[in-house]
Amino acid sequence: MSDTIAAIATAPGQGGIAIVRVSGDMAEDILRRIFRPVGGKHPLPTHLLTYGYIVEDTERIDECMAVIMRAPKSYTREDVVEFQLHGGGCVAQKVLAMCLSSGARLAQPGEFTKRAFLSGRIDLSEAEAVMDLIQAKNQFSMQASIKQLRGSVAEKVKSLRAALLYEIAFIESALDDPEHISTEGYPKKLGKITQELLGEIGKLIASAEDGLLRKEGIRTVIVGKPNAGKSSLLNLLVGEERAIVTDIAGTTRDALEESIRLKGISLNIIDTAGIRSTDDVVEKIGVERAMQYAKEADLILYVVDSSRPLDENDRQIIEMIRDQKVIVLLNKSDLEAAVSETDLQEAFGNREVSMIRTSAKKNAGIEEFEQLLEQMFFHGEIRSEDEVVITSMRHKEALCEAYDSLKMVQKSLEDDMPEDFYSIDLMSAYASLGRIIGEEVGDDLVNEIFSKFCMGK
Q1: Which of 5, 372, 384, 430 is 20 to 30 A away from residue 204, measured at CA?
Q2: Minimal CA–CA distance to 293: which of 316, 313, 273, 310?
Q3: Would you call 11 helix, strand, or coil by DSSP?
Q4: pLDDT in tens, 133-170
Q5: CA–CA separation, 259 vs 138, rounded Å?
Q6: Angle of helix 111-118 versus helix 443-451 axis, rounded to 10
């Protein structure tokens, strides 16, 4: 934190502008050394863009805008300087080199945001939201990241911890001063409080299933016999010819992955080799991979050629995917049907399975497919503005640990254990929740989280 750091904050390549960012005690000295304002002089006013030139000795390097944001009203709560240069790697690299030769060092990945966390400007959940916002793949992910950055998760966690801390303090006080603080009737009261907290934490844990899927995308695997229309379906969903389509069975030998968005829902789709018994060594490897991908999927799209009767290969596929989330697509519905929904229902052992008649050739059934996705994975509409949605696996794990600790409190209450047993498990729940906002974490975890950030953020 004592060093002054600098980095290029914009993506590499050509663009309208490139930004070099500097943070630390020497930031203003570096600004004075390399920037010459036009029609003005140093010191520059804080938080206002100033027009001028980057100068090395007497040579003008670039015409640019510069701004200083003096501490503590900056992203890192240190003096922060930004140079808005002409886009392109050469100019930005030159200005960065000038900053480094003037006393700054190159920032580590995520170090600007790490300093914002360490200075107390943001908590750990808000810091993670910064990276989530940068990496957002869809509208939901963007909105969830913005809400988390504004403190939605932090506020909820802090309110839960405050409730726990009050009970911990009461129990400890009662144990220290039993003559003046009575615990008569307290177990019943604590049982009611823990039940309410379990309900709130359980609701957050339940939101994580939707939140993670909406954020990361649904891992979707297309399976079916050769020539059922899997690759045609992929091309239709992607909107371009990504997979080779022929009448020759076994054309697709290996998996083809694509990410698409349908009405705000992200699908990470894998088109696999047609599953059938084969002696072809290469095709056999493709079939084995298809089976492995299917086992790991959030959703199976089972494409059936509805113009051909079910055979032994179909029965093998159905047996493999029987216990997973499946949408059966009866493809080639523009041809005379040889397979009915009833046939497939019986093949699945009369398990309730979602089925849609599609035609990749006629572009039919896709809208119905999109509506079915929303119903299968997301419980109703996207949640209200005020409702907190968990989109981090780290947060979910911490919530689950807190939930388990509160269940232990309830168990101690049922077994009529001494009050200090309650305190131990309440404190464990308090610590678990603290890890979400960074109040109960070690340096190793902090370093790991920020190492995933880009260099200039």
Answers
A1: 372
A2: 273
A3: coil
A4: 887 777 777 888 888 888 899 999 999 999 999 999 99
A5: 11
A6: 140
Q: In angstroms, how far apart are the furthest CA atoms of the chain? A: 87
Output DSSP code: residue 61: E
Which pTM value belongs to this model?
Answer: 0.72
**DSSP 8-state secondary structure symbol assigned to residue 188:** H
Q: Output phi, psi for 352, to 5 deg.
A: -70, 115
Q: How many alpha carbons lie under 13 Å from residue 438 in its C-beta half-sphere? A: 23
DSSP single-letter state for residue 359 = B
Q: Which two tokens stand for residue 267?
A: 């699908």
As a whole number of Å, the end-to-end CA separation of the chain is: 15
Tokens of 202: 């359980």
d(CA 174, CA 112): 45
Kindly state the DSSP code that residue 231 receives in the 8-state scheme. H
Query: Do strands 59-69 and 50-56 pair parallel, antiparallel, or not at all (unpaired)?
Result: antiparallel
pLDDT digits (tens, 9 = 90+) for 363-397: 778 788 878 877 777 654 444 456 788 989 999 99
User: CB–CB of 329/369 below 8 Å?
Assistant: yes
Report the mean per-residue pLDDT for the chain: 85
- What are 334-343's pLDDT values in tens digits? 888 888 888 8
Q: Which residues have CB under 8 Å from 381's CB, separation 6+? A: none
Give the separation between CA 23 and CA 1, rounded to whole angstroms. Answer: 10
**C-alpha span between 422 and 420 (Å, rounded):** 5
